[in-house]
Amino acid sequence: MCIRDSTGSDIEVIAPDGSKLGGVKENDGDNLIFNLTTILDQKDSTDDGIYTVNITPVDNTGIAGTTQKFSLVYDTQKPEVVSVSHVELFANTSYTNGEISEIEVNLQDKGNSDIDFENSKVIMTRQGIEETDEDSQLVGKLTNNQVDTIWLTLDTPLSSDGKSDGKYTVELEILDKAGNELKKSYPVIFDTKPPTASLNVPDENQVITGEINEIVVQIEDSPGASGVDLNASSVELTGPDGSIPMNKNDNGVDTLIYTFMQLSKNGDDDGTYLINVTSQDKAGNISNQQFEFFYIAKAPKMISAVPGKDAFVNRLDTVNVTFSQTGQPIDLKNFDLVVLSPPDEKELPGTVEAEDNTI
Questions:
Q1: I want to staple 282 with a disulfide (CB 3.0 to 4.6 A). Which of 102, 152, 226, 346 is the partner?
Q2: Interval 5-54: pLDDT, tens
Q3: 10 Å Cβ neighbour count for 25?
Q4: How far apart are CA 281 and CA 95, in angstroms?
Q5: pLDDT tens, residue by residue, 145-172
Q6: What pTM value is reported for the model?
Q7: Which residues make Cβ contacts (< 8 Å) with residue 341, sequence separation at least 6?
Q8: Distance (Å, rounded) from C-alpha 186 to C-alpha 37?
Q9: Average per-residue pLDDT for the chain
Q10: Contacts of 271 (CB under 8 A, 6+ apart)
Q11: Would strands 166-175 and 149-158 be described as parallel, antiparallel, or unpaired?
Q12: What is the C-alpha to C-alpha distance for residues 320 and 354, in angstroms, rounded to an integer?
């Protein structure tokens, strides 16, 4: 570090702690040069601070003029990023799903030189959809508050209708007035579409007569989207008597596995079961879907017939048979009713109709 002033002048440099820095004065005929012998540290911030320079001009007759003072800032530290909207600073990739009209960057200059907003940049680019596509820089306007915040306002905001979904990069090139430069790059996945779930076990609307003690749901997100958040996704099972406790597990990728106590085989648990699935991706998009299945452990039983057993009639046009109702409507389409006439038990012609639990 050297400081020049007019011939005959004296120069001294005062450190932030009030001590004078050592140096050697030279005169090149036109200027007095003060070369510091105290080396300021450039590797850390030990010597950073505001230094005072005192210049006392002296002419050839030895008359000294008024001492002039000015300050200079010695700053070896890069600016720091406090926050970036839509970005998690310490994540490998950030995920967001809301409309983006601007990127707001909050900064802090560790030294005392302040941010050089005129030469600082915030750039947002969209990665090519295909590998052969080039990245494209989004057009926008930079503004700042001349203190600690810079904004990139996009000419065309990223919409939440799915058309802007994709992979983006937010790049920062931040300078302070001492010339320290900070460069940062943040990958961002913009994803506005919720994932969808499909039922693997049991099948949707399946009628189950055997054992069942698990629900398996697969959740799928759009290609190139943020990906399924299995921790935030969940499944609830409700039966005829209310909510059923379950234990949650997953495959670490896209499948939820819930286990529960085996349903009773004596018919007490027979009925309709609802599976409510809440699917969430890493960008926070949520979808809710409902599936159902039917559990029947106890077969339906005939409870009445008209005409009844051993009845006497003088006309027979219709025979009605009613079955006990289980939790699931009886599939009467698969029932058959045959009326036989004596003495040879010949089958009488007719049609079978079903309504509720009666044929």
A1: 226
A2: 445 677 888 888 888 888 888 777 677 778 888 877 777 777 888 888 88
A3: 13
A4: 9
A5: 999 999 999 999 999 888 899 999 999 9
A6: 0.69
A7: 348
A8: 43
A9: 85
A10: 239, 240, 294, 295, 326, 327, 328
A11: unpaired
A12: 10
